[in-house]
Amino acid sequence: MGSQGRFFPAAPQGRCQGSYQPRAGFAADRVTTEICHCGGVVMFSARSKWVWVLFSLLAAGTVLADSYRIIPMNQKHLATYYVQASMLGSGDVEFMVDTGAGYTTINEYTLELLIEAGNATPVGELTGVMADGRELRLPLYRIKRLVLGEDCVLNDVDAAVFPQETRMLLGLSALEKAAPFVFSTNPPRLSLSNCGTVAG
User: Fold this and answer.
1) Residue 14 banded pLDDT, cuts 50, 70, 90
2) pLDDT tens digit string along 46-102?
3) Containing H/E element for 127?
4) In this structure, what are the phi and psi dihedrals at residue 10, rounded to the nearest 5 degrees?
5) Residue 105 contacts residue 91 (beta carbons within 8 Å)
6) How many domains does the chain have?
7) Domain co-membership, 57 together with 96
8) Sign of the CA dihedral running 28, 32, 33, 39
9) 162 with 147: CB under 8 angstroms?
10) Are residues 129 and 43 in the same domain?
11) Residue 106 contacts by C-beta under 8 Å, 6 or more apart in sequence?
12) Are 101 and 158 in contact (CB under 8 A)?
């Protein structure tokens, strides 16, 4: 085992001399990796090193997963998922999650409530394309504070305003505020990593 096989920098040069002891029950042993002791320092083969690199990455992923805020989704129809949210002025509302939509959308009824509460300001217009191919000029407003689930706060979310009481969509203009995020269907949930706090 040469220097390429050293796992710890303090390990001596050359092959392991003396007793060679595969460690029973070790995950690395099950992938035919040689592990031995040399001068009181644990030595690993190159194959074992990659196993431990993979293990470290998986462990890091677990730590990162613990930092995600989990927002349950409710499946109402095939491949259609909704999340509960709340906004100052509108109170509790429901958004359909649409990761293919560039903008979050709200309807005119909800906008009126947000404006009355000082929770939305106009920022411009955009052109929306309807399902039938028609183009529609839509007002664009900035929602100062939107809370997903119980405590995932998103600030300054741009939202296009659709007529009357149309279904509201949670699009990328909101989801990117909490990126990186994970959309999972089994179980149905959103995992968001950059939520603000309700107290904040």
Assistant:
1) very low
2) 454 444 444 444 443 443 455 789 999 999 988 899 999 999 999 999 999 999 999
3) strand 120-129
4) -80, -5
5) no
6) 2
7) no
8) positive
9) no
10) no
11) 114, 141, 143, 159, 160, 161, 162, 168
12) no
pLDDT of residue 53: 43
Same domain as 112, residue 75: yes
Alpha helices in 104-143 (DSSP H): 108-116
Token pair recorded at residue 198:
């309700």
Do 53 and 147 belong to one domain?
Answer: no
Q: Which residues form the domain of 100? A: 69-192
pLDDT of residue 200: 52
Q: Looking at residue 185, which CATH number applies to its domain?
A: 2.40.70.10
pTM (2 d.p.):
0.65
Same domain, 53 and 76: no
Residue 138 and residue 85 in one domain = yes
DSSP string, 146-169: EEETTTEEEEEEEEEEESTTPPPE
